[in-house]
């Protein structure tokens, strides 16, 4: 095997060597026997000017390249360097394509040796990394990377990464390497020779793997360590008062936190929750940013669990908060107790991998790149994970399709033939939860346990964090949704007997075993094809119906919606829709009957069914249940009684002809929560940083059904000094959005954003309520800023997830992030990464939104005022959430610009400002406000 690796990085004039882009810097590091043995770097004259973007990105300018050699002058050195070596790069196809083109043009033979892509290798060998950008990986491994986007520096960091990757391969068990050997044939990297040598080395040492891993049926798992201590073995005298005093002492002596700062509001929160638990009362606590509410509720929760020997459930809305609780906050408070205390995160079944399904998928031949990469990631991850929770893995974009086939998204099976039953992650997590003091879950699973299916261990006390989301989550859970994409995907899993899919797999097995089911297979296939055609017709007609009934002005973020009531719609198109639904219901009934007949025939003739057959039959049964749920949903939406519920259709205006979505949700969930939660649990603690409007809890209590339970309600202020740390600036020289055209308004706010950005040097978050406005403003600001050295990032405009965009924003010294929807909450930008927040429009819900419109109509019908009782409180809560993005610590400092003049020109505008902490508010022309901004930031 070759042991010479040449790690290469290039800086170029652009992205396409075929279109004339050239290399401007070549960096190479020779890596042999685990260490760097040689380096080579040179600038190259591209014989063309450097664009401002490339100069800003790399720091390389035309003057630096004036006396640099041409590529053809250094080509012999590069060819000799690469001789008998692996060509290694971070995104190898990019660097290799440039090098091959330059070698060709300079008259040299192109590189024909093996290649390794460190991006690809990192993605499956380090499956838990959140970013595979070189800078992110360098930060994770603490590599010194002081000159990113300089070829020599990038090549050296990539070489260090290669060393880690080769070490990781070496650490993997024999059975994992054997399976990776098969999968890696589909990768860009030429890994076969490397893995084959490791397999040969480890073949005679497989017994060593058994000591370190749980090896079962050719798959290696991390060995489980039982660390639970039954509660009846908990020793030592403790009480709430003693732990509280110990907490005070530990904080003051910096044994828990490095800052050594005791927050009176945090202690007050602990006392309130302790008393609520003791007195069996419900409690609503608005906890200001920076108070430390998670530790504030964890301590009384653990003490109550230990004294009552019952778990306390903590429900959160976001995965980020769940991770914070289990990884950061809970380990801190364990220092207070002289014995083991335990917290477990419990999620829905779909979060956990089914090892039986994974084993079956490993046996399937699959040429899809993302699918194979996901299999490789999971193989490595299984040697590391103790939970089997997919949220730990950074899946590739296409990996979610495979995960749908791998998750434990079905009730616990009674099938004792499952060879993985004793190692089921979901069952193991549920067992751990039975022994834990704290069970951390999400609002969706909490709702399921509350309303339908008992999934959590028995409990009487619950803390609901991010409680402002509870109403929406319950409403969505109680609702129904159906869309063509999901239907098409599910029917695609059935397939046909002559191609891939469940029908084909069963047909081949039965043909091999001489089981007579051909007629059933054919009947099922025919019914499935008819159902697909009918569903296609239905969703096309629904889309046409909505486009006929609505105008372009009714669209929101590229979608149009139409609220309908069963029995009230008229017309030939609607009648055709109902007739189509009747045919679909009949076809589903027939299709499910064929599935049942085929399953019974196979069970009758195949008494010694293999696990694979049992697995395929369970998949078939799942699809039958899904099809029946479609039938029930269609029947409810189009023929059922819809009192106190709203049904609507959404279409993507520029999407496919069947890009249509059906929804139904209850108007209000207060009665459901009153009956199922507050009326049944001894103590429910609701907390969030944003629960009050007009300095009262009236709105949230009514929405959640708390009015009859007389809960304790308290607002605990943030410990931050907002008068010194923040200010609100309101420009008065912006037009009213209703007085000008959309283009004129966007030009005006873009001019203001650009002027502010030049003062702040970026470091700005701009919050929108409309994606369309965000997109247009993004490009207008981009034109205005030109080459000012400020990077623009836009949600839905710049590629990448929210997490990726947020991380890029933090890492970029001078950048502006344009966000909507999810950026109003749940993101943190610490320190100097953010010092200016712009709220473009007050965040009122569009009145045309179906659920909002129906709620408003119901409030008016009952004598209320939909603006004061619904629209305004919702907007104020959202406004407070947006404001909360700015100041996240005592060291932060920043300014909030509010561009919406309604905040000073309307009777209700003052209520938005009054909802904020006490701080300076200034209004005036932008030029005057920029003076204030400079003085404040400096």
Automatic annotation (TrEMBL):
Known role: 3'-5' exonuclease.
Name of the protein described by the UniProt record: 3'-5' exonuclease DinG
Sequence motif DEAH box, location on chain: 465-468
The keyword Disulfide bond appears for this protein: no
Keyword Iron-sulfur in annotation: yes
Binding site for ATP: 287-294
One GO molecular-function entry: helicase activity
EC numbers: 3.1.-.-
InterPro entries: ATP-dep_Helicase_C (IPR006555), DinG (IPR006310), DinG/Rad3-like (IPR045028), DnaQ (IPR006054), Helic_SF1/SF2_ATP-bd_DinG/Rad3 (IPR014013), Helicase_ATP-bd (IPR014001), P-loop_NTPase (IPR027417), RAD3-like_helicase_DEAD (IPR010614)
Protein family (similarity comment): Belongs to the helicase family. DinG subfamily. Type 2 sub-subfamily.
Keyword entries, A-Z: ATP-binding, DNA-binding, Exonuclease, Helicase, Hydrolase, Iron, Iron-sulfur, Isomerase, Metal-binding, Nuclease, Nucleotide-binding
Domain Helicase ATP-binding: 252-542
């Amino acid at each position: 095997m070759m042991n010479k690796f040449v790690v290469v990085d290039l800086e170029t004039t652009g992205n396409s060597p075929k279109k004339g882009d050239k290399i401007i810097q070549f960096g190479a590091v020779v890596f042999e026997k685990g260490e760097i043995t040689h380096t080579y770097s040179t600038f190259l004259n591209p014989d063309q000017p450097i664009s401002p973007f490339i100069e800003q990105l790399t720091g390389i300018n035309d003057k630096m390249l004036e006396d640099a050699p041409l590529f053809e002058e250094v080509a012999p050195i590069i060819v000799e360097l690469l001789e008998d070596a692996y060509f290694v790069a971070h995104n190898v196809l990019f660097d290799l394509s440039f090098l091959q083109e330059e070698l060709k043009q300079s008259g040299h033979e192109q590189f024909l040796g093996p290649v390794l892509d460190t991006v690809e290798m990192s993605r499956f060998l380090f499956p838990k990394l959140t970013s595979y950008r070189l800078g992110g990986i360098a930060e994770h491994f603490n590599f010194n990377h002081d000159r990113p986007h300089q070829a020599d520096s990038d090549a050296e960091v990539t070489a260090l990464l290669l060393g880690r990757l080769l070490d990781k391969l070496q650490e993997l068990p024999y059975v994992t390497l054997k399976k990776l050997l098969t999968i890696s044939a589909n990768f860009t990297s030429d890994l076969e020779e490397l893995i084959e040598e490791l397999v040969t080395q480890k073949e005679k040492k497989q017994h060593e793997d058994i000591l370190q891993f749980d090896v079962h049926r050719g798959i290696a798992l991390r060995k489980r360590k039982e660390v639970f201590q039954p509660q009846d073995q908990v020793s030592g005298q403790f009480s709430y008062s003693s732990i509280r005093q110990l907490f005070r002492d530990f904080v003051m002596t910096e044994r828990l936190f490095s800052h050594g700062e005791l927050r009176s509001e945090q202690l007050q929160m602990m006392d309130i929750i302790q008393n609520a638990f003791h007195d069996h009362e419900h409690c609503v606590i608005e906890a200001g940013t920076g108070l430390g509410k998670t530790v504030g509720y964890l301590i009384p929760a653990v003490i109550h669990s230990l004294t009552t020997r019952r778990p306390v459930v903590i429900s959160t809305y976001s995965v980020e908060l769940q991770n914070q609780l289990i990884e950061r906050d809970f380990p801190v408070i364990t220092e207070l107790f002289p014995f083991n205390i335990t917290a477990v995160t419990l999620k829905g079944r779909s979060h956990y991998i089914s090892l039986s399904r994974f084993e079956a998928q490993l046996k399937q031949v699959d040429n899809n790149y993302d699918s194979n990469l996901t299999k490789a990631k999971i193989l490595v991850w299984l040697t590391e994970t103790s939970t089997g929770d997919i949220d730990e893995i950074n899946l590739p974009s296409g990996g979610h399709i495979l995960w749908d086939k791998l998750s434990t998204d079905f009730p616990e099976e009674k099938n004792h033939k499952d060879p993985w039953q004793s190692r089921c992650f979901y069952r193991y997590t549920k067992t751990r939860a039975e022994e834990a003091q704290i069970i951390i879950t999400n609002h969706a699973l909490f709702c399921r346990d509350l309303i339908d299916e008992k999934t959590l261990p028995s409990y009487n006390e619950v803390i609901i964090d991010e409680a402002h989301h509870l109403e929406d989550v319950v409403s969505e859970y109680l609702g129904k949704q159906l869309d063509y994409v999901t239907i098409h995907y599910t029917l695609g899993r059935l397939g046909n007997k002559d191609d891939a899919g469940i029908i084909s797999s069963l047909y081949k097995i039965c043909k091999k075993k001489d089981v007579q089911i051909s007629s059933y297979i054919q009947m099922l296939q025919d019914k499935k094809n008819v159902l697909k055609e009918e569903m296609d017709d239905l969703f096309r007609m629904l889309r046409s119906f909505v486009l006929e009934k609505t105008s372009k002005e009714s669209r929101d973020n590229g979608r149009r919606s139409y609220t309908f009531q069963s029995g009230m719609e008229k017309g030939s198109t609607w009648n055709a829709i109902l007739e189509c639904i009747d045919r679909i219901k009949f076809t589903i009934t027939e299709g499910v009957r064929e599935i049942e007949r085929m399953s019974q025939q196979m069970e009758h003739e195949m008494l010694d069914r293999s696990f694979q057959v049992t697995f395929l039959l369970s998949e078939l049964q799942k699809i039958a249940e899904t099809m029946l749920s479609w039938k029930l949903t269609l029947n409810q939406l189009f023929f059922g009684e819809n009192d106190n519920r709203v049904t609507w259709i959404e279409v993507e205006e520029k999407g496919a002809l069947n890009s249509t979505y059906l929804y139904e949700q209850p108007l209000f969930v207060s009665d459901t929560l009153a009956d199922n939660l507050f009326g049944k649990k001894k103590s429910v603690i609701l907390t969030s940083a944003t629960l009050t409007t007009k300095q009262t809890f009236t709105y949230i209590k009514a929405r959640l059904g708390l009015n009859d339970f007389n809960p304790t309600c308290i607002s605990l202020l943030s410990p931050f000094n907002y008068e010194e740390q923040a200010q609100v600036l309101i420009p008065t020289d912006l037009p009213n959005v209703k007085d000008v055209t959309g283009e004129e308004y966007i030009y005006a706010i873009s001019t203001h954003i650009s002027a502010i950005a030049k003062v702040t040097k970026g470091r700005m978050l701009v919050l929108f309520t409309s994606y369309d406005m965000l997109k247009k403003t993004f490009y207008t600001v981009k034109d205005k800023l030109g080459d000012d050295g400020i990077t623009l990032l836009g949600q839905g405009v710049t590629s990448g997830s929210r997490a990726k965009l947020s991380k890029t924003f933090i890492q970029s010294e001078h950048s502006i992030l344009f966000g909507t929807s999810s950026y109003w909450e749940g993101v943190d930008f610490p320190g100097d990464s953010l010092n200016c927040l712009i709220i473009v429009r007050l965040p009122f819900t569009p009145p045309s939104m179906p659920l909002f419109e129906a709620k408003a109509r119901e409030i008016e019908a009952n004598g209320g005022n939909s603006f004061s009782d619904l629209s305004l409180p919702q907007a104020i809560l959202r406004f407070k959430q947006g404001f909360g993005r700015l100041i996240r610590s005592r060291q932060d400092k920043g300014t909030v610009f509010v561009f919406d003049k309604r905040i000073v020109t309307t009777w209700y505008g003052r209520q938005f400002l009054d909802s904020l902490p006490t701080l300076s508010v200034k209004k005036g022309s932008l030029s005057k406000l920029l003076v204030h901004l400079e003085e404040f930031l400096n």
